[in-house]
Amino acid sequence: MLKELCLINGISGREDEVRDYIIGLLPSDCAYGVDNLGNLIVEKKGSKRPKNKIMLSAHMDEVGFIITYITDDGFLKFAPVGGIDARVVFGRSVTVGERKVSGVIASKAVHHLSADELKKAPDFDEMYIDIGAENRKQAEHYVNIGDSAYFNSDYTLYGNGFVKAKALDDRMGCKILIDILNSDTEYDFTACFVTQEEIGTRGAAVAAYNVKPDFAVVLEGTTANDVSGVPEGKKVCVLGGGAVVSYMDSGTVYDFQLYKRALKIAEDNGIKCQTKTAVAGGNDAAAIHKSCGGVKTIAVSVPTRYIHSPSCVAKLEDIESVKLLAQKLIGELAND
Hints:
Shape: globular
Largest sheet: 8 strands, mixed
Number of strands: 17
Distance between the termini: 33 Å
CATH class of the largest domain: Alpha Beta
Strand order of the largest sheet: 1-2-12-3-13-16-14-15
Order of helices and strands: HHEEEEEEEEHEEEHEHEEHEHEEH
Strand content: 25-35%
C-alpha cells in the first residue's frame, strides 16, 4: 500500500488520484464525504462512543512543480509547489502534465557558467524542463501552462528496513490512517485525509472547522538530520528511534500536557518514541490547533531523511511505532 501511495502523483490542490485510491481502501463500516477543498473526511465507528471528539489527520499532497511558461524553443519554465531546496532539483527526471510526459530538469551547461555560478546550485528561475520538444508549438501539443510536474522516483527497500521514495511525506501518514481505519477500534473517531498542507496547511483548516474536534492527532513525516558529521544535538530526530513527538515547531506550540502524556503512553506501552529536538518546520497542527475556539493538538511523526526530495528515506519500524502510538492516543483521549 505504501508503495502504491508514494507512486501516485498529487501536488497541493491536485490530490484527486490519491483521494480516489484511499476511498477504494476504506472499510464498509466507514461513512465518508469530500468537502469543497477536496478533504476526505471519514467517520469510523468503534464499539463505544467517546466523550470527546477525536480527529486524526494526514495530508495527501506532495511537493512538486507547476509549469509557468513555455519558451520559443520548447523548454518549460516552472515554479516549486511547496518547500523544495533547489539543490535537489537540477538533473532530476520528472513527469509532466496529464499525459505524463517524461522530462529532465536542466540549466546552462557547466562550461558556460561563470566563476560565481560554479559556486552555487542554480535557482528555480535559472532552470527549465526539457521534454525533447523542438519548439513551443510542439511542446504545447503535450503540455499546458498550469500543468503539474513530479519527481520520478522508484520505491526502493534497502539496508535493514529502510525505504526510499518520493512523497513519503505524507503518504506514510495516509498509510497509517488507512491501517487504523481497517482495524477494530474501541472508540469512534474522525479520520481526515487533507489537502494543500505543503502550501500553508490550507486543507486542514477547513477540515478542522468541519469536524470541530476536542483533540487532534496529526500524523506526519518530519526532518531527520542523523547523517555523517552532524553533532548529536543537531540531528533533530533519528531513524530507528521510533515515533517523533514535538513540543514546538515553526507553526505550533503544542499542548504541553498532551505532549508529556504522549511520551508517557509510549513508555507505558513499550512503543519506541523520541522528541523532535529542534524548533523548526511545521505541519497541519498549525491550522488545526487554532480552529473552532482552539483544539488540543499533538503531532506524531515519522523521522525522515532528505524530506521534500525525490529520495526521501524512512524506516519501516518507525512507521509502525507511529501507528501504535496513534491507536493508543485514540483510547486515551476519548474520555479525557
